[in-house]
């Protein structure tokens, strides 16, 4: 029996900046992928059968020139939100403030029992950062 999975590819301006944000600030397990000769360098974030693949926009446009105009027409992240659960939200919130990244909604304790804030990653993708709940 095969196991289904889902991959989402996001284009980014710079892999190192993306890696610094997701692995450094959010402390997620982001890996630089080993690529075949001629394939674009990319990052992979995997969790429970899902993965997000980050590829530099320039590499995508070189492989698929027709997309170049679309990237100019539509800002990244419009209509999409990435939800991330973390262990130490206060430390992450302070790091994002220090890096002067845009925060849409500040850190709040919600009536449904979680702490969360909304921010944009360096490429404009919208993230909801939520602190993991303790044991029930």
Which terms summarize this structure?
136 residues; alpha/beta; 2,3-Dihydroxybiphenyl 1,2-Dioxygenase, domain 1; 4-stranded mixed beta sheet; 4 helices; 8 strands; 26% helix; globular
What does this 3D model show about the protein?
By secondary structure, the protein is an alpha/beta fold. The protein has one domain: Roll (2,3-Dihydroxybiphenyl 1,2-Dioxygenase, domain 1). Helix content is 26%, strand content 35%. It is built from four helices and eight strands, in the order βαβββααβαβββ. The strands form two sheets. The protein has a four-stranded mixed β-sheet with strand order 1-4-3-2. A four-stranded mixed β-sheet has the order 5-8-7-6, with helices on one face. The longest helix has 11 residues. It starts with 5 loop residues before the first strand and ends in a 5-residue tail after the last strand. The mean pLDDT is 88.
């Amino acid at each position: 029996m095969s196991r289904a999975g889902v991959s989402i590819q996001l284009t980014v301006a710079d892999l190192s900046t993306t890696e610094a944000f997701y692995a450094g600030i959010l402390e997620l397990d982001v890996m630089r992928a080993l690529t075949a000769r001629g394939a674009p360098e990319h990052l992979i974030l995997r969790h429970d059968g899902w993965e997000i693949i980050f590829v530099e926009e320039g590499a995508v446009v070189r492989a698929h020139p027709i997309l170049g105009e679309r990237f100019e027409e539509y800002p990244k992240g419009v209509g999409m939100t990435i939800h991330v659960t973390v262990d130490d939200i206060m430390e992450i919130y302070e790091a994002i403030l220090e890096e002067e990244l845009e925060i849409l909604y500040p850190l709040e304790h919600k009536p449904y029992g979680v702490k969360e804030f909304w921010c944009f990653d360096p490429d404009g993708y919208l993230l909801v950062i939520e602190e993991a709940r303790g044991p029930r």
